[in-house]
Amino acid sequence: MAQNKVLVIGSGGREHALAWALAKSPQVSQVIIAPGNAGTDHAADRTGKLLNVGIHSHDIQALLTYARSNGVDLTVVGPEAPLADGIVDEFMAAGLRIFGPTRAAAQLEASKAFAKSFMREHHIPTADYANFADYDEAAQWLRAYQKPVVVKADGLAAGKGVIMCHTPEEAHLALRRTMLEREFGDAGRTVVLEEFLTGPEVSLLAFSDGHTFVPMPPARDHKRINDHDQGPNTGGMGAYAPVPSVSPAVIEQICRTVMQPAIDGMAARGTPYKGVLYAGIMLTPDGPRTLEFNCRFGDPETQVILPLLQSDLFDILMACTTGRLAEIAPQIAWHSGACATVVLASPGYPGDYPKDLKIQGIEKANALQGVTVFHAGTAASDGQVVTAGGRVLAVSAVGHDLTGALNRAYEGVHHIEFSGMHYRKDIGHTK
Ligand code: AMP
Ligand code: GLY
Protein backbone atom coordinates (compact mmCIF):
# COMPACT_ATOMS: atom_id res chain seq x y z
CA MET A 1 0.00 0.00 0.00
CA ALA A 2 1.40 3.38 -1.01
CA GLN A 3 2.35 5.54 1.95
CA ASN A 4 1.30 9.06 1.11
CA LYS A 5 1.80 12.23 3.09
CA VAL A 6 -1.00 14.78 2.87
CA LEU A 7 -0.80 18.42 4.00
CA VAL A 8 -4.12 20.05 5.00
CA ILE A 9 -4.07 23.86 5.21
CA GLY A 10 -6.27 25.62 7.77
CA SER A 11 -7.33 25.41 11.40
CA GLY A 12 -11.12 25.05 11.62
CA GLY A 13 -13.72 22.33 11.96
CA ARG A 14 -13.67 21.83 8.20
CA GLU A 15 -9.95 21.09 8.29
CA HIS A 16 -10.33 18.68 11.22
CA ALA A 17 -13.01 16.84 9.22
CA LEU A 18 -10.77 16.76 6.14
CA ALA A 19 -7.82 15.43 8.16
CA TRP A 20 -10.07 12.85 9.87
CA ALA A 21 -11.44 11.59 6.53
CA LEU A 22 -8.00 11.50 4.89
CA ALA A 23 -6.49 9.63 7.87
CA LYS A 24 -9.05 6.85 7.29
CA SER A 25 -7.47 6.10 3.91
CA PRO A 26 -5.14 3.09 3.95
CA GLN A 27 -3.14 4.92 1.30
CA VAL A 28 -2.32 7.80 3.65
CA SER A 29 0.41 7.37 6.22
CA GLN A 30 0.47 10.91 7.59
CA VAL A 31 -1.76 13.98 7.57
CA ILE A 32 0.02 17.19 8.49
CA ILE A 33 -2.24 20.13 9.37
CA ALA A 34 -1.00 23.71 9.12
CA PRO A 35 -1.62 25.15 11.63
CA GLY A 36 -4.45 22.86 12.88
CA ASN A 37 -6.08 22.93 16.32
CA ALA A 38 -6.21 20.80 19.47
CA GLY A 39 -8.29 18.16 17.66
CA THR A 40 -5.73 17.62 14.91
CA ASP A 41 -2.85 17.62 17.39
CA HIS A 42 -0.78 14.45 17.60
CA ALA A 43 -1.64 14.14 21.30
CA ALA A 44 -5.41 14.04 20.66
CA ASP A 45 -5.26 11.71 17.70
CA ARG A 46 -6.03 7.99 17.92
CA THR A 47 -4.96 7.11 14.37
CA GLY A 48 -1.35 8.10 14.99
CA LYS A 49 -1.38 9.76 11.57
CA LEU A 50 -2.11 13.42 12.45
CA LEU A 51 0.53 16.04 13.08
CA ASN A 52 0.20 19.81 13.44
CA VAL A 53 2.85 22.11 12.06
CA GLY A 54 2.89 25.76 13.15
CA ILE A 55 2.63 27.45 9.76
CA HIS A 56 -0.18 29.94 9.14
CA SER A 57 -2.50 29.33 6.18
CA HIS A 58 -1.56 32.67 4.57
CA ASP A 59 2.18 31.98 4.57
CA ILE A 60 2.31 30.44 1.09
CA GLN A 61 6.11 30.45 0.83
CA ALA A 62 6.56 28.67 4.18
CA LEU A 63 3.90 26.10 3.22
CA LEU A 64 5.59 25.48 -0.10
CA THR A 65 9.00 25.06 1.49
CA TYR A 66 7.51 22.66 4.05
CA ALA A 67 5.73 20.57 1.39
CA ARG A 68 8.86 20.35 -0.74
CA SER A 69 11.32 19.52 2.00
CA ASN A 70 9.04 16.99 3.74
CA GLY A 71 8.00 14.97 0.70
CA VAL A 72 4.31 15.91 0.83
CA ASP A 73 2.42 14.00 -1.89
CA LEU A 74 -0.81 16.01 -1.86
CA THR A 75 -1.79 19.38 -0.37
CA VAL A 76 -5.46 20.16 0.37
CA VAL A 77 -6.47 23.78 0.94
CA GLY A 78 -9.29 24.51 3.43
CA PRO A 79 -9.94 28.28 3.46
CA GLU A 80 -10.57 30.62 0.53
CA ALA A 81 -7.93 33.27 1.26
CA PRO A 82 -4.84 31.27 0.20
CA LEU A 83 -6.73 30.08 -2.91
CA ALA A 84 -7.57 33.67 -3.87
CA ASP A 85 -3.91 34.54 -3.23
CA GLY A 86 -2.76 31.92 -5.75
CA ILE A 87 -1.43 29.11 -3.56
CA VAL A 88 -2.43 26.54 -6.19
CA ASP A 89 -0.58 28.42 -8.95
CA GLU A 90 2.57 28.58 -6.81
CA PHE A 91 2.50 24.91 -5.81
CA MET A 92 1.87 23.84 -9.41
CA ALA A 93 4.72 26.03 -10.68
CA ALA A 94 6.96 24.24 -8.16
CA GLY A 95 5.78 20.84 -9.42
CA LEU A 96 3.81 20.02 -6.24
CA ARG A 97 0.42 18.29 -6.28
CA ILE A 98 -2.35 20.40 -4.74
CA PHE A 99 -6.16 20.15 -4.57
CA GLY A 100 -8.00 23.44 -5.15
CA PRO A 101 -8.71 26.03 -7.84
CA THR A 102 -6.09 28.38 -9.26
CA ARG A 103 -6.24 32.08 -8.47
CA ALA A 104 -8.11 32.69 -11.73
CA ALA A 105 -10.68 29.98 -10.98
CA ALA A 106 -11.06 31.08 -7.34
CA GLN A 107 -12.42 34.41 -8.69
CA LEU A 108 -15.80 32.67 -8.60
CA GLU A 109 -15.74 33.28 -4.84
CA ALA A 110 -13.17 36.05 -4.49
CA SER A 111 -15.04 38.52 -6.69
CA LYS A 112 -18.81 38.66 -6.51
CA ALA A 113 -18.80 41.02 -9.52
CA PHE A 114 -16.87 38.41 -11.53
CA ALA A 115 -19.22 35.65 -10.39
CA LYS A 116 -22.30 37.65 -11.37
CA SER A 117 -20.95 38.51 -14.83
CA PHE A 118 -19.93 34.88 -15.32
CA MET A 119 -23.41 33.67 -14.34
CA ARG A 120 -25.06 36.14 -16.67
CA GLU A 121 -22.79 35.11 -19.55
CA HIS A 122 -23.47 31.40 -19.01
CA HIS A 123 -27.19 31.74 -18.27
CA ILE A 124 -26.81 30.38 -14.75
CA PRO A 125 -29.96 31.35 -12.82
CA THR A 126 -29.22 34.00 -10.20
CA ALA A 127 -30.75 37.15 -8.69
CA ASP A 128 -30.99 40.21 -10.99
CA TYR A 129 -28.24 42.62 -10.16
CA ALA A 130 -26.08 45.57 -11.07
CA ASN A 131 -22.37 46.17 -10.25
CA PHE A 132 -21.02 49.59 -9.33
CA ALA A 133 -17.58 51.02 -8.69
CA ASP A 134 -19.03 54.53 -8.34
CA TYR A 135 -21.05 55.50 -5.27
CA ASP A 136 -23.22 58.13 -6.97
CA GLU A 137 -24.21 55.78 -9.76
CA ALA A 138 -25.07 53.05 -7.24
CA ALA A 139 -27.17 55.49 -5.19
CA GLN A 140 -28.99 56.61 -8.32
CA TRP A 141 -29.77 52.97 -9.25
CA LEU A 142 -31.14 52.39 -5.74
CA ARG A 143 -33.38 55.48 -5.95
CA ALA A 144 -34.91 54.10 -9.12
CA TYR A 145 -35.16 50.49 -7.82
CA GLN A 146 -37.24 51.05 -4.63
CA LYS A 147 -37.77 47.32 -3.94
CA PRO A 148 -36.09 45.24 -1.17
CA VAL A 149 -32.46 44.75 -2.15
CA VAL A 150 -29.29 43.04 -0.98
CA VAL A 151 -26.09 45.12 -0.87
CA LYS A 152 -22.92 43.06 -1.27
CA ALA A 153 -19.29 44.11 -1.02
CA ASP A 154 -17.49 42.71 -4.07
CA GLY A 155 -14.44 41.19 -2.42
CA LEU A 156 -13.78 38.66 0.35
CA ALA A 157 -15.23 39.93 3.62
CA ALA A 158 -15.00 36.84 5.83
CA GLY A 159 -18.67 35.94 5.45
CA LYS A 160 -19.77 39.50 6.25
CA GLY A 161 -20.27 42.19 3.60
CA VAL A 162 -23.82 41.09 2.66
CA ILE A 163 -26.55 43.43 3.93
CA MET A 164 -30.22 42.58 3.43
CA CYS A 165 -32.34 45.73 3.05
CA HIS A 166 -36.12 45.81 3.28
CA THR A 167 -36.56 49.56 2.83
CA PRO A 168 -34.92 52.20 0.58
CA GLU A 169 -33.54 53.90 3.74
CA GLU A 170 -31.81 50.69 4.84
CA ALA A 171 -30.41 50.24 1.33
CA HIS A 172 -28.90 53.74 1.19
CA LEU A 173 -27.39 53.29 4.63
CA ALA A 174 -25.92 49.91 3.62
CA LEU A 175 -24.43 51.45 0.49
CA ARG A 176 -22.81 54.25 2.52
CA ARG A 177 -21.40 51.76 5.05
CA THR A 178 -19.96 49.57 2.30
CA MET A 179 -18.65 52.10 -0.25
CA LEU A 180 -17.97 55.31 1.70
CA GLU A 181 -17.23 54.19 5.24
CA ARG A 182 -15.51 51.03 3.93
CA GLU A 183 -16.83 48.92 6.77
CA PHE A 184 -15.54 45.82 4.93
CA GLY A 185 -12.31 47.48 3.79
CA ASP A 186 -11.28 47.30 0.16
CA ALA A 187 -13.85 44.52 -0.42
CA GLY A 188 -16.35 47.42 -0.65
CA ARG A 189 -14.56 49.30 -3.43
CA THR A 190 -17.10 47.72 -5.80
CA VAL A 191 -20.63 46.68 -4.81
CA VAL A 192 -23.19 44.29 -6.21
CA LEU A 193 -26.81 45.41 -5.72
CA GLU A 194 -29.08 42.44 -5.96
CA GLU A 195 -32.74 41.52 -6.15
CA PHE A 196 -33.96 40.28 -2.72
CA LEU A 197 -34.96 36.62 -3.17
CA THR A 198 -36.88 34.41 -0.76
CA GLY A 199 -36.99 30.68 -0.17
CA PRO A 200 -35.13 27.90 1.64
CA GLU A 201 -31.41 27.60 1.01
CA VAL A 202 -29.28 24.60 0.17
CA SER A 203 -25.54 24.16 -0.26
CA LEU A 204 -24.59 21.89 -3.13
CA LEU A 205 -20.90 21.04 -3.24
CA ALA A 206 -19.20 19.11 -6.02
CA PHE A 207 -15.77 17.61 -6.60
CA SER A 208 -14.35 18.71 -9.95
CA ASP A 209 -11.27 17.85 -12.00
CA GLY A 210 -11.83 20.76 -14.37
CA HIS A 211 -14.13 18.89 -16.75
CA THR A 212 -16.09 16.28 -14.80
CA PHE A 213 -17.90 17.01 -11.56
CA VAL A 214 -19.47 14.76 -8.92
CA PRO A 215 -22.02 16.29 -6.54
CA MET A 216 -21.98 15.58 -2.82
CA PRO A 217 -25.18 15.14 -0.78
CA PRO A 218 -27.04 18.47 -0.44
CA ALA A 219 -26.46 20.20 2.90
CA ARG A 220 -28.11 22.98 4.83
CA ASP A 221 -26.30 25.22 7.26
CA HIS A 222 -27.74 27.56 9.87
CA LYS A 223 -26.07 30.95 9.63
CA ARG A 224 -27.81 32.96 12.35
CA ILE A 225 -26.54 32.86 15.93
CA ASN A 226 -29.87 32.17 17.66
CA ASP A 227 -32.77 29.74 17.38
CA HIS A 228 -35.50 30.46 14.82
CA ASP A 229 -32.91 32.23 12.63
CA GLN A 230 -32.68 35.26 14.89
CA GLY A 231 -29.71 37.53 15.53
CA PRO A 232 -26.61 38.26 13.46
CA ASN A 233 -25.04 35.99 10.86
CA THR A 234 -22.16 33.74 11.90
CA GLY A 235 -19.78 31.41 10.10
CA GLY A 236 -22.42 28.68 10.61
CA MET A 237 -23.97 27.27 13.81
CA GLY A 238 -24.86 23.80 12.56
CA ALA A 239 -25.73 21.80 9.48
CA TYR A 240 -27.26 18.61 8.20
CA ALA A 241 -27.11 16.45 5.10
CA PRO A 242 -28.83 15.30 3.03
CA VAL A 243 -31.76 17.76 3.00
CA PRO A 244 -34.97 15.67 2.87
CA SER A 245 -36.96 18.34 0.99
CA VAL A 246 -34.33 18.60 -1.76
CA SER A 247 -35.39 15.80 -4.08
CA PRO A 248 -33.15 13.98 -6.57
CA ALA A 249 -35.01 15.94 -9.29
CA VAL A 250 -34.04 19.27 -7.71
CA ILE A 251 -30.42 18.13 -7.37
CA GLU A 252 -30.45 17.10 -11.01
CA GLN A 253 -31.88 20.51 -11.95
CA ILE A 254 -29.14 22.34 -9.99
CA CYS A 255 -26.48 20.13 -11.59
CA ARG A 256 -27.86 20.82 -15.08
CA THR A 257 -28.56 24.55 -14.75
CA VAL A 258 -25.78 25.64 -12.35
CA MET A 259 -22.93 23.16 -11.93
CA GLN A 260 -22.55 21.95 -15.51
CA PRO A 261 -22.54 25.43 -17.12
CA ALA A 262 -20.16 26.67 -14.40
CA ILE A 263 -17.64 23.86 -14.96
CA ASP A 264 -18.00 24.14 -18.76
CA GLY A 265 -17.80 27.95 -18.68
CA MET A 266 -14.62 27.98 -16.57
CA ALA A 267 -13.00 25.40 -18.88
CA ALA A 268 -14.01 27.45 -21.94
CA ARG A 269 -12.33 30.56 -20.45
CA GLY A 270 -9.08 28.61 -20.19
CA THR A 271 -9.35 28.58 -16.38
CA PRO A 272 -10.66 25.08 -15.67
CA TYR A 273 -12.14 24.71 -12.21
CA LYS A 274 -10.40 22.00 -10.19
CA GLY A 275 -11.31 21.52 -6.56
CA VAL A 276 -14.58 21.81 -4.69
CA LEU A 277 -17.19 24.02 -6.29
CA TYR A 278 -19.76 25.07 -3.71
CA ALA A 279 -23.01 26.60 -4.96
CA GLY A 280 -25.16 28.45 -2.42
CA ILE A 281 -28.65 28.00 -3.84
CA MET A 282 -31.98 29.58 -2.91
CA LEU A 283 -35.01 27.48 -3.83
CA THR A 284 -37.33 30.31 -4.90
CA PRO A 285 -40.91 29.91 -6.12
CA ASP A 286 -39.45 30.43 -9.62
CA GLY A 287 -36.88 27.65 -9.27
CA PRO A 288 -33.30 27.39 -7.94
CA ARG A 289 -31.24 30.62 -8.00
CA THR A 290 -27.51 30.78 -7.30
CA LEU A 291 -26.73 33.17 -4.45
CA GLU A 292 -23.00 32.61 -4.52
CA PHE A 293 -20.19 30.30 -5.45
CA ASN A 294 -17.52 29.32 -2.97
CA CYS A 295 -14.24 27.87 -4.13
CA ARG A 296 -13.73 25.39 -1.28
CA PHE A 297 -15.43 23.00 1.11
CA GLY A 298 -18.07 24.67 3.34
CA ASP A 299 -17.79 25.02 7.08
CA PRO A 300 -19.77 23.43 8.81
CA GLU A 301 -21.10 21.55 5.73
CA THR A 302 -17.89 19.48 5.54
CA GLN A 303 -18.52 18.21 9.07
CA VAL A 304 -21.79 16.60 7.85
CA ILE A 305 -20.82 15.63 4.30
CA LEU A 306 -17.55 13.76 4.92
CA PRO A 307 -18.99 11.42 7.61
CA LEU A 308 -21.43 10.26 4.88
CA LEU A 309 -18.67 9.52 2.37
CA GLN A 310 -18.17 5.80 2.03
CA SER A 311 -15.35 5.99 -0.54
CA ASP A 312 -11.74 6.93 0.05
CA LEU A 313 -11.43 10.74 0.07
CA PHE A 314 -7.75 10.53 -0.88
CA ASP A 315 -8.64 8.64 -4.08
CA ILE A 316 -11.20 11.29 -5.06
CA LEU A 317 -8.91 14.25 -4.42
CA MET A 318 -6.05 12.58 -6.32
CA ALA A 319 -8.38 11.87 -9.26
CA CYS A 320 -9.40 15.55 -9.29
CA THR A 321 -5.80 16.74 -9.45
CA THR A 322 -4.95 14.33 -12.27
CA GLY A 323 -8.06 14.86 -14.42
CA ARG A 324 -9.28 11.27 -13.84
CA LEU A 325 -12.50 11.98 -11.96
CA ALA A 326 -14.67 10.50 -14.74
CA GLU A 327 -12.84 7.17 -14.30
CA ILE A 328 -13.63 6.80 -10.60
CA ALA A 329 -16.95 8.69 -10.51
CA PRO A 330 -19.12 5.55 -10.80
CA GLN A 331 -17.47 4.10 -7.68
CA ILE A 332 -17.98 7.14 -5.42
CA ALA A 333 -20.45 5.97 -2.78
CA TRP A 334 -22.26 7.63 0.13
CA HIS A 335 -23.85 6.14 3.24
CA SER A 336 -27.61 6.01 3.03
CA GLY A 337 -28.35 7.69 6.38
CA ALA A 338 -28.02 11.30 7.51
CA CYS A 339 -25.50 13.40 9.39
CA ALA A 340 -26.05 16.45 11.59
CA THR A 341 -23.65 18.78 13.36
CA VAL A 342 -24.19 21.25 16.19
CA VAL A 343 -21.63 24.03 16.64
CA LEU A 344 -20.66 25.02 20.18
CA ALA A 345 -19.70 28.69 20.28
CA SER A 346 -17.91 30.96 22.73
CA PRO A 347 -19.96 33.39 24.83
CA GLY A 348 -20.29 36.67 22.90
CA TYR A 349 -19.67 35.16 19.44
CA PRO A 350 -20.06 36.48 16.69
CA GLY A 351 -18.92 39.57 18.62
CA ASP A 352 -15.95 39.64 21.02
CA TYR A 353 -15.44 36.57 23.15
CA PRO A 354 -13.05 35.35 25.85
CA LYS A 355 -10.45 32.64 25.16
CA ASP A 356 -8.68 29.94 27.19
CA LEU A 357 -11.87 28.55 28.75
CA LYS A 358 -11.40 24.93 29.82
CA ILE A 359 -13.50 22.42 27.85
CA GLN A 360 -14.81 19.26 29.52
CA GLY A 361 -16.44 16.14 28.14
CA ILE A 362 -15.09 15.85 24.58
CA GLU A 363 -13.98 12.25 25.18
CA LYS A 364 -17.37 11.26 26.58
CA ALA A 365 -19.13 12.69 23.53
CA ASN A 366 -16.70 10.98 21.17
CA ALA A 367 -17.36 7.64 22.86
CA LEU A 368 -21.05 7.71 21.83
CA GLN A 369 -21.92 5.59 18.84
CA GLY A 370 -21.88 7.54 15.60
CA VAL A 371 -20.63 10.76 17.23
CA THR A 372 -17.46 12.60 16.16
CA VAL A 373 -16.44 15.87 17.77
CA PHE A 374 -14.63 18.08 15.28
CA HIS A 375 -12.54 20.83 16.79
CA ALA A 376 -12.59 24.37 15.40
CA GLY A 377 -11.35 27.15 17.74
CA THR A 378 -9.50 25.02 20.29
CA ALA A 379 -5.95 24.92 21.61
CA ALA A 380 -4.01 22.63 23.93
CA SER A 381 -2.80 24.22 27.16
CA ASP A 382 -1.03 22.20 29.88
CA GLY A 383 -2.62 18.98 28.69
CA GLN A 384 -6.10 20.56 28.70
CA VAL A 385 -8.22 21.52 25.71
CA VAL A 386 -9.23 25.20 25.91
CA THR A 387 -11.25 27.56 23.71
CA ALA A 388 -9.30 29.62 21.17
CA GLY A 389 -11.93 30.91 18.75
CA GLY A 390 -15.58 31.89 18.27
CA ARG A 391 -16.79 28.58 16.94
CA VAL A 392 -15.18 26.06 19.26
CA LEU A 393 -16.43 22.57 18.37
CA ALA A 394 -18.78 20.93 15.87
CA VAL A 395 -20.45 17.85 17.32
CA SER A 396 -21.35 15.62 14.35
CA ALA A 397 -23.38 12.43 14.40
CA VAL A 398 -24.57 10.00 11.77
CA GLY A 399 -27.89 8.16 12.03
CA HIS A 400 -30.32 6.13 9.97
CA ASP A 401 -32.25 9.32 9.29
CA LEU A 402 -32.10 13.01 10.17
CA THR A 403 -33.99 12.62 13.45
CA GLY A 404 -31.63 9.86 14.57
CA ALA A 405 -28.56 11.90 13.62
CA LEU A 406 -29.88 14.99 15.42
CA ASN A 407 -30.71 13.05 18.59
CA ARG A 408 -27.21 11.63 18.74
CA ALA A 409 -25.54 14.97 17.99
CA TYR A 410 -27.46 16.67 20.82
CA GLU A 411 -26.70 13.76 23.13
CA GLY A 412 -23.03 14.43 22.38
CA VAL A 413 -23.50 18.15 23.02
CA HIS A 414 -24.97 17.43 26.46
CA HIS A 415 -21.71 15.82 27.57
CA ILE A 416 -19.63 18.90 26.71
CA GLU A 417 -19.21 21.96 28.84
CA PHE A 418 -17.32 25.21 28.96
CA SER A 419 -18.13 28.48 30.64
CA GLY A 420 -20.77 30.44 28.68
CA MET A 421 -21.04 27.78 25.94
CA HIS A 422 -23.73 28.72 23.41
CA TYR A 423 -25.39 26.56 20.76
CA ARG A 424 -28.60 26.41 18.75
CA LYS A 425 -31.27 24.02 19.96
CA ASP A 426 -33.11 23.95 16.62
CA ILE A 427 -30.60 22.54 14.14
CA GLY A 428 -32.45 20.44 11.56
CA HIS A 429 -35.75 22.18 12.23
CA THR A 430 -36.12 23.51 8.70
CA LYS A 431 -36.35 20.36 6.64
P1 AMP B 1 -23.69 35.25 0.12
O1 AMP B 1 -22.40 35.44 0.89
O2 AMP B 1 -23.75 36.01 -1.14
O3 AMP B 1 -24.11 33.83 -0.01
O4 AMP B 1 -24.83 35.80 1.09
C1 AMP B 1 -24.95 35.34 2.43
C2 AMP B 1 -26.40 35.09 2.77
O5 AMP B 1 -27.18 36.26 2.48
C3 AMP B 1 -27.05 33.99 1.93
O6 AMP B 1 -26.81 32.73 2.47
C4 AMP B 1 -28.52 34.40 1.99
O7 AMP B 1 -29.10 33.99 3.20
C5 AMP B 1 -28.44 35.90 1.97
N1 AMP B 1 -28.59 36.41 0.59
C6 AMP B 1 -27.60 36.61 -0.30
N2 AMP B 1 -28.09 37.07 -1.47
C7 AMP B 1 -29.43 37.17 -1.33
C8 AMP B 1 -30.50 37.59 -2.18
N3 AMP B 1 -30.27 38.03 -3.42
N4 AMP B 1 -31.75 37.56 -1.69
C9 AMP B 1 -31.98 37.14 -0.41
N5 AMP B 1 -31.02 36.73 0.43
C10 AMP B 1 -29.75 36.73 0.00
N1 GLY C 1 -21.20 27.45 5.45
C1 GLY C 1 -20.91 28.58 4.66
C2 GLY C 1 -19.57 28.60 4.09
O1 GLY C 1 -18.75 27.72 4.27
O2 GLY C 1 -19.28 29.56 3.39
User: Could you tell me how far the N terminus lies from the C terminus, measured between alpha carbons in angstroms?
Assistant: 42 Å
CATH C-level label of the largest domain? Alpha Beta
Biggest sheet: strands, sense, closure?
5 strands, parallel
Spatial extent as radius of gyration: 21 Å
Estimated share of beta-strand residues = 25-35%
Helix-strand makeup class: alpha+beta
From the 3D structure, determine the CATH topology of the largest domain.
Answer: D-amino Acid Aminotransferase, Chain A, domain 1
Low-confidence spans: none
Largest beta sheet: what is the strand line-up? 3-2-1-4-5
Q: How does CATH name the architecture of the largest domain?
A: 2-Layer Sandwich
**What's the total helix number?**
14
User: Level of helix content?
Assistant: 25-40%
Mean pLDDT rating: 95
Key words describing this protein structure:
Dna Ligase, domain 1; 5-stranded antiparallel β-sheet; globular; binds glycine; 431 residues; 31% helix; 27% strand; single chain; alpha+beta; binds adenosine monophosphate; D-amino Acid Aminotransferase, Chain A, domain 1; Rossmann fold
